[in-house]
Amino acid sequence: MLRLENVSVNYGSFRALDNVNIHAKDGELVVLLGANGAGKSSIFLTVSGLNKAASGSIKFGNKELVGMQPSQIVHDGVVHCPEGRKLFPGMSVLKNLMLGAYVHRKDKPGVQKTLEEVFELFPILHEKREANAGSLSGGQQQMVAIGRALMGRPKALLLDEPSLGLAPLVVKQVFDVIQKINRSGTTVLLAEQNAFAALKIASRAYVIENGHIVMEGSQDELLNNEQVRKAYIGA
Ligand code: ATP
């Protein structure tokens, strides 16, 4: 279980997250919905130790993540796939993927096995493994970003806007892959603007506005909620 309790984050005098409470049970796929600037990325950055929480607790199983080094958080199984992919465009696909395995670098056979699993999930990345990441299409680059996160062997995967800027057909492929990853047992926390597609594969979701969680519910509850439909689905 990943559980945030009363997590607040400040950027200077600006309160970006105010007493946020969210959780994802083991194996769940939980969606975070919210407009630009609502605080979704701030949640992920704080869970992965890149932002400092002003107060609150973030537990993964029995471990408290607040105050831990980001590399230790990855080592313990919580891996962040950031918004905008953050690849190294001048490095090969393979090298980008291997960066995700840095915390496991001493376990060479394990890393090799995970790499094979990533190539099985994304055969195109095997084909393009020697190409510079920057030469790939947007969808393929997103697959590199997800593949790199998988190289960290997540038990819980934080996916920040994976469908951003992608063509509809590619968006579908990305969502299919996310569902597959989740069905293989990985807990997924997914921040998405593409609310309909995200809710379709989610078990539960939260709506965040101005740093506050304003709604929480099951897939059905949110898909049928008029406010959510108006604000995020456009129907
Ligand atoms: P987006 O999808 O646009 O990234 P988001 O929901 O992920 O939106 P955050 O990036 O978490 O939102 O931003 C939450 C708020 O905090 C916004 O008002 C943003 O401008 C502000 N913010 C984010 N990072 C910083 C920072 N480093 N310094 C100051 N303010 C920040």
TrEMBL record:
The keyword Ribonucleoprotein is annotated on this UniProt entry: no
- The ABC transporter domain is annotated at 2-235
Drop me one GO molecular function for this one. ATP binding
Alphabetically ordered keywords of this record: Amino-acid transport, ATP-binding, Nucleotide-binding, Transport
Question: Hey, which family's this protein in?
Answer: Belongs to the ABC transporter superfamily.
According to UniProt, the name of this protein is ABC transporter ATP-binding protein
